[in-house]
Amino acid sequence: MEKAKRILIAGSSDMDITMCMDKMPAPGETSVGGEGIYYTPGGFGAGAAIAFSRLGAESIFCTKLGADAHGHKLYEYYRECGLNTSQIYADKDAKTGVRAIMREADGSTRRVIFRGANANFRPENLSPAIATQPDALYTCLEIPFETVRAAAAEASGRGIPVVIDAAPATKDMDLSTLSGVEIFSPNETEAEILTGIRPAGAESCLRAALALSRIVKCKYVVIKLGARGSYIYDRKHYMLIAPARPDKTVDTDGVGDAFTAALTLEYLRTGDIKVAATYASAAAAVAISRAGAVESLPTDEEVRAYLAKH
After folding, report:
1. Can you give the pLDDT of all 310 residues of the chain as single tens digits?
2. Measured on CA atoms in the order 73, 79, 82, 83, is the torsion positive or negative?
3. Which of 5, 185, 222, 281 is in Cβ range 3.0-4.6 Å of 244 for a Cys bridge?
4. Strand pairing report for 218-224 and 230-233
């Protein structure tokens, strides 16, 4: 049996506070009603770390939590999920990150993020973890960009593949300073933010991928296209990977984490980006058919069962 891949995930941790309401109140208005308030683990890093663990990797999560009640609850939850928590830091000078999610009855959402301890995630917090030589470093853009840049340089200098999920992309990041990136993966919106090109069709997908490959020094650009699948560009060739159709669409939360984690892990297992993208599409299809961001994340057995069935 092949040894499980060791993935170091450097990313954000939030306590998600979801408020379900009939409709958003107008300025000055008080809205009463809805289904209630829910507290759930969140953050792009945490979602990816749990996704990797569910898919069969040894998931080493490096993050910063506040030394508060939210931080304690999240730390215990990560342990229960089977994550390696040896690289989680408690920040005594900041609160745990919080993401307030307002969800209306029609399913539309609005989000406000308080970064908290995530804003204090420094390069020196990652160096000891990188020195353990994981099979890959996976990170996102929700932690300080200087930390992402330093981690990518250190990891690639040690021969460790670097995968960056471009969430949440902003125009003020100088992505040209990144080095040693194996896979850079934005979704449609993030690709447009970074390039000014909306990947809406075959021609615009290629233009967006070309623009991204000029901005980011990477081996593969993989654009997540939602219900249209994914688009891969390796500086020479491009291909559109057909989407995996979910049995039903229930909840899109967590689907991006499921896709990019599955893409990374299967790429490490097979060395084939096309096979990895097909596997990732199946993981996304399973996730979207279930409720919850973390609760919907699939196991490797579930993904392979989906592929066998479809």
Report:
1. 678 999 999 999 999 998 888 888 889 988 776 777 889 888 889 999 999 999 999 999 999 999 999 999 999 999 999 999 999 999 999 999 998 988 888 777 788 889 999 999 999 999 999 999 999 999 999 999 999 999 999 999 999 999 999 998 998 999 999 999 999 999 999 999 999 999 999 999 999 999 999 999 999 999 999 999 999 999 999 999 999 988 888 878 789 999 999 999 999 999 999 999 999 999 999 999 987 778 889 999 999 999 999 8
2. positive
3. 281
4. antiparallel
SS3 state of residue 307: helix
213: β partners: none
Number of separate helices (H) and strands (E) present in the chain: 9, 13
Tokens 């994981």 label which residue? Answer: 134
Distance CA 309, CA 247 (A): 11
- For 14-78, the DSSP string reads EEEEEEE-SSPPPTT-----SSEEEEEEE-HHHHHHHHHHHTT-EEEEEEEEESSHHHHHHHHHH
Structure tokens belonging to residue 265: 């892990």
This prediction's pTM: 0.92
- Residue 89's DSSP bridge partners are 64
Q: Where are the alpha helices (DSSP H) in 131-201?
A: 145-157, 188-195
How far apart (Å, rounded) are the C-alpha atoms in residues 221 and 199?
Answer: 13
Tell me the one-letter amino acid at 233: Y
Closest CA to 63 of 143, 141, 130, 134: 143
Q: Hey, which bits of the chain come out as E strands?
A: 6-10, 14-20, 36-42, 58-66, 88-91, 97-103, 109-114, 136-140, 162-165, 181-185, 218-224, 230-233, 238-241
Q: Please report where in the chains the tokens 């998600």 appear, as a residue.
A: 16
